[in-house]
Amino acid sequence: MATPALKDLPKVDVDLKSQLESFSPTALKSASTEEKCLLPTAEDVKMEKVQQLVSGIEGFDSTKLRHAETQEKNSLPDKDAVAAEKTHNALISGVEHFDKTTMKHAETEEKNPLPPIEAIQQEKSQHDFINGIEHFNRDSLKHAETQEKNPLPTKEVIDQEKAA
User: Fold this and answer.
1) φ/ψ bin of 35: left (φ > 0), alpha (ψ from -120 to 50), beta (otherwise)
2) What is the rounded CA–CA span in Å between residue 151 and residue 157?
3) Of 71, 107, 141, 143, most Cβ neighbours within 10 A?
4) Region Disordered: what ranges (predicted)?
């Protein structure tokens, strides 16, 4: 740091300047200092705090307290939850750390999910046949008398069959 120029220094009164120059520290009187206001020590402060705490506890009015029901909550998971979480974590780590180099290359092949034309035509003809049966008009039929013919064999035909 540069020393300031003489013109930059503050101006001091001539009387003050002469007094400062003629000052001698030996002319001072010796004096002893006394501490008039003693501050408490750390132990005193600690003892006072303990005393205040004790007096606060002794003077406490317990009638101002309200009754409260305690509820015990179990925040720990049960065995099933732990097992499910372990399984889930094992699955995720298995997927994340899967070695893709062990996989084989596979070619994808698109298959036509539609049936062949012959199957469609057969199904259509079967559907038309069933439709024809279900929606058949009975009024278009002619009335016919049925005659039961049950020719019984004669005694001679029975005897011939037994002989044969």
Assistant:
1) beta
2) 12
3) 141
4) 143-164
- Full-model pTM: 0.24
Q: What is the mean pLDDT of residues 78-107?
A: 92
In sequence order, what are the residues at sequence separation of 6 or more whose Cβ sits closer than 8 angstroms to the Cβ of residue 99?
none
CB 89 within 8 A of CB 96: no
Q: Which tokens hold the place of 129?
A: 């046949």
Q: How far is CA 34 from CA 24, 29, 37, 38, 134, in A?
A: 26, 16, 9, 10, 129
| One-letter amino acid of 7 | K
Q: Which residue is listed with tokens 């399984």?
A: 87
Across 30-46, average pLDDT: 84
| CA dihedral angle for residue 6, residue 9, residue 11, residue 12, rounded to 10 degrees | -100
